């Protein structure tokens, strides 16, 4: 079944039509599902049918409703709320996710050991819930049973995370726990108590954030998806850029940016929007590697796109203490530069190859489209407004209600009772991945705060860097890319904020700059070789070489590797400590700088660039991106010089060939 319905011959020709990719690329829904299962663990779930399917479905629905009630209705002790949330989470992970990724799926089958693990994992947390008073009174004087339950709870949680998220985060957490247990002088009982029975471990700050508002935003995204907003975003992108040179690629950039900011999954967004945009790009004349790379880079960038930022913006409020409006507004320019770089590269590639856009007759009209479907944007607008005036939990619930209401405006978008339960089920299933990753991230935070290893890591980085902030940033970048491999956006940021951001802050970097720096490099792990899951997913749809697609995606997203260094060393790029005039200057020169770097990497402006021209315009672009009057002047001169020489070379008639 295609992502969007095909238009019947009776429908008016003014309606925009998406072509069924199955007819064009021999790609079926089963093929797309296979891609998702290969590169996105969240899609690798057990297959249920009949009564078992109904039971699992409504277990997930009940979990979603319970999560809402934890925020609006139930007023329990903090540890009871968090432990019960994680207990249900762990239990459902073993019901939903098989032990092996890509394992042969048997219908309605769950092995006996998974049942045991589900009961042990979930039961350990509910043991904590029902014995809370006794454990509080005893504190670190754990009984043998308390100690065994705590150890089982931590180990089973790690296994649940391996299934739902992947091995990298489990390895990192395990190394920290091993250090805590075997390389510190604290008794085992104290370590287990800190990890399992306090709000500094698995039920620490990450789970507090997940259970109080992240889960609500995930559910909001599931309801928003049911309104058909992804289709609206693609149609909107087509109406804006579809007819320009290389239009389909520009459509991919715009639509993926819009869809990605609420999806929370680079791989999921790549497959969802890429199933439509990648075949369109290939038909337009783009190489398969380039088509897959454009979609992967754009979908990954959607995670850094305000106002949602894959829900990481709300976590950033927790870790920085800044209000949401400040974070969202200061994240705008770096995100714009990221997508401007991809958009410019796409445009220059189209010009170099002489590619045209789609016929305007095939595209929706912008004004008519907004009148017909613009109401779908109301929940997003309401969410942002509510975030400025109310709590994040209330904003998410109100926006979810608005999504349900606006869906009723049209039969095409209406959320009926079946879609309502589908949204709850999908929201709960997505929460399993995010939640279990947050629980494991809590163990990392616990080790750092209770053992003093954080100070040792900071000292090690400072020693390796020799006190130079740029070298420290390089080392932190590599660490973030490694730790961010295959981790969901929210958990990704939690890990980076806990382990890497304090290092840069200690080195003297401004707090928000440090958090944005580690967030950016944690996210781009999805397109950075060798573990570039989003790029590999794009290559599977484009039928291109995976590594070549990943390398191309990295060059397209070059702004994500440059801009963080710039706002890390000069926070004016985040509009911190700058006047209005300076802000305007930063915006203009940064955009020119991204143009210079993108043009140099693509090797084209008005004509093909020679090696010396490419080096000059890249150098000019880099100096323009870094805020500063002298660097701006140098950059403008270099970029202008290359543009002029490229224009003159185009006017010069070519030498006749023999």
Description of the structure:
The chain is mostly helical and 658 residues long. The longest helix is centred in the middle third of the chain and has 35 residues.
Strand content: under 5%
What is the averaged pLDDT score?
Answer: 85
Output the radius of gyration. 25 Å
Shape: globular
Query: Level of helix content?
Result: over 70%
Beginning-to-end CA distance, first to last residue: 53 Å
- Distinct helical segment count: 32
Content-based structural category: mainly alpha
Q: How many strand units?
A: 0
Let me know the largest β-sheet: none
In terms of quaternary structure, the protein is single chain
**Residue windows where pLDDT falls under 50 for at least 5 positions:** 1-25, 654-658
Helices and strands, with pairings:
Blueprint: H1 21-25, H2 29-39, H3 50-71, H4 78-96, H5 112-130, H6 132-138, H7 144-164, H8 167-182, H9 188-196, H10 205-226, H11 229-241, H12 247-263, H13 266-284, H14 288-301, H15 312-320, H16 324-330, H17 332-353, H18 366-373, H19 378-389, H20 392-407, H21 417-451, H22 453-465, H23 469-483, H24 489-499, H25 501-506, H26 511-523, H27 533-542, H28 546-556, H29 559-569, H30 580-602, H31 611-625, H32 629-651
Provide the descriptors you would attach to this structure in a database record:
disordered N terminus; mainly alpha; globular; 658 residues; disordered C terminus; 32 helices; single chain
